[in-house]
Amino acid sequence: MENYWEVSNFIKRQLIGSTPALDNYFYTRKIIKIAGENGYEAGLKELKDNAGRFALRQSVVERIGYKLLFEKKNKQAIDVFKINAFYLPDSSYVYNSLAEAYALAGNKDLAIENYKKYLALEPDDKDTEIKLKKLSSLK
What we know:
By secondary structure, the protein is mainly alpha-helical. Helix content is about 80%, strand content about 0%. The protein is built from eight helices and no strands. The protein has helices at about 1-15, 20-40, 40-50, 60-70, 75-85, 90-105, 110-120, 125-135. It starts with a helix and ends with a helix.
């Protein structure tokens, strides 16, 4: 599915040229690639170097981060999700994704910490409360 979006946006860029939405998509892909290949700090540096020029697209980061988790590339997924959390600190979903990645990587303490951040923003999410209780009982 990811190749569909890549090809679709590439074709759009060829047909209509550069637009802010397309620029943001390709910039987001670039940040993800840097963070996935070179780690969080490298992705963060690139993000800070271009602050204000582009917007990171949360949905793209989430989609690729979960794809990395599915491929069992937990460290890369965590680095990608950490970029999202840095860029969008008021978004609850960035903490939920990061918590799930940490849990899958076996880092219960950071998973718990991020589930708590998520629940502070989404206090009515009973499913996440259950995940947090289960994870906390494993400590």
